[in-house]
Amino acid sequence: MSPFPYRLVATDLDGTLLRADESVSDRTRDALAAVTAAGAAHIVVTGRAVPWTRHILDDLGYEGIAVCGQGAQVYHAGEHRLLTSLTLDRQLAGLALSKIEAEVGPLAVAASRDGLDGEVLMGPGYRAQGGPLPYVPYEDPAELWSAPLTKLYIQHPELGDDALTRLARETVGGLVDVVMAGPGIVEILPLGLSKATGLSLAARRLGVKAAETIAFGDMPNDIPMFGWAAHGVAMGNAHEELRAVADEVTASNEEDGIAVVLERLLSA
Q1: What single DSSP character describes residue 176?
Q2: Consecutive H or E run containing 64
Q3: CA angle, 182 as apex, 61 and 6 as ends, to 5°?
Q4: Disulfide engineering: 71 pairs with which of 132, 173, 197, 205, CB 3.0-4.6 Å?
Q5: Which helix or strand (DSSP H or E) is residue 232 part of?
Q6: 85: which strand partners?
Q7: In this predicted model, what pLDDT tens digit does every residue of 166-214 receive, in sequence order?
Q8: Beta-carbon contacts of residue 175 (< 8 Å; ≥ 6 apart)
Q9: pLDDT tens string 10-66
């Protein structure tokens, strides 16, 4: 029998497993290695689509299954192939976007295209997040809808992330899902899609149950994952909405919060 009390460790990436410079500390790497040596599996569950996740997984030497795109994509890192992929209905997304803009005014919009090499399109006025990953600017709105999408990103020139998420959800909650995944990252997703959706599919492939899973996260988009897993751990830097539903709060991502919990569980 494994001394570790869980068979699956699910970790978000940004603000959780990754530090601000997108690195993973040696301490956290060692803790995850010890957990896998004890018989548990580690699975990455991220809002990033596969093209924006793959380089991180490769750097980690990660060869298992990862859940990407807020649960839309189940990706086999070792084989570099998609196992499942769910796309956003573009007609519904366009309708949702027009309804939100009718309520709050013009939005800046970006989108992730589907597939292993799906591009990130970025419209006029959208404030790009920092980092080395590429995006494709567009001017013609028709270009946004010209190929299958996994999700849309929206920004408002005045509303904050929480207010935009709340108003968008109130306006189009029956058409699509709206989540806040990080600073400046409000996303429109297929209705019913969440990290829990993708994690449950991946766990089934691994032969692991929700009752055997511990999950780590930092943002409101991690709430469904915490609801699915047996134990949810919010990082010290986590959004207050996630902290409110977490089973415990650990140190921040910069202070090896994942390792703090895993080391304690291993020593127990």
Answers
A1: E
A2: none
A3: 50
A4: 197
A5: strand 231-234
A6: 73
A7: 999 999 999 999 999 999 999 999 999 999 999 999 999 999 999 999 9
A8: 92, 95, 96, 99, 191
A9: 999 999 999 999 999 999 999 999 999 999 999 999 999 999 999 999 988 999 999
Tokens of 202: 């991946």
Neighbouring residues of 219: CB distance < 8 A, sequence distance ≥ 6: 12, 15, 47, 180, 181, 182, 238, 239, 242
Give residues with Cβ within 8 angstroms of 259, minimum separation 6: 25, 27, 28, 30, 31
Q: How far apart are the first and last CA of the chain?
A: 14
Indicate the residue type of 37.
A
At 81, give phi and psi (nearest 5°).
Answer: -145, 150
Q: Is 188 helix (H, G, I), strand (E, B) or coil?
A: strand
- Residue matched to tokens 């829990």: 196
Q: ∠228-229-232 over CA atoms, to 5°?
A: 115
What pTM did the predictor assign? Answer: 0.94
Q: Which residue matches tokens 């080391």?
A: 263
Contact call for residues 180 and 186 (beta carbons, < 8 A): yes
Joined tokens for residue 111: 């989108």
Rounded to whole angstroms, the Cα distance separating 212 from 170 reads 34
Beta-carbon contacts of 53 under 8 Å, excluding residues fewer than 6 positions away, are 13, 44, 46, 66, 68, 75
